[in-house]
Amino acid sequence: MPSINGTEYLVILVVALLVFGPQRLPELASKVGGWMREIRTVANDFRVALEAEIGDVKKPFEEAVAPLKDLSADVKDVATESASMLEWKGPVHDQGPTPADAGEDFSALESPSDEDEDPES
User: Fold this and answer.
1) Burial of 79 (0-12, 13-18, 19+ CB in 10 A)
2) Low-confidence ranges of the chain (pLDDT < 50)
3) ∠ CA 42-45-48 to the nearest 5 degrees?
4) Could you give the C-alpha distances from 15 to 4, 11, 20, 23, 25, in angstroms and in order?
5) Please, are residues 28 and 20 in contact by the beta-carbon 8 Å criterion?
6) Residue 46 burial class via C-beta count within 10 angstroms: exposed 0-12, middle 13-18, buried 19 and up
């Protein structure tokens, strides 16, 4: 929504003064103020009624979702316990091949080497 700065208010005031005159301008400002109060009252009443209706709609939904939230918490607990059970608790070796070494060996097996080529070609 565009905002109106001080200069624009001044221009609007000067134009209103020229159009309506100094005698009718206070009366017009009073009417506009009354309309604004009424608009704010209607908007506030609408907001309160809408919040009341949404609250009535939200309540059954929240009641239906509450067991799912409990179930979700239970599933997270089980998943955390399962993850701790899957961690390797055996001996840790300081020597020998690493997973990276095994990956290099596997890559070497997949790629053709010069020795595997046909000598007749």
Assistant:
1) exposed
2) 121
3) 150
4) 15, 6, 8, 14, 11
5) yes
6) exposed
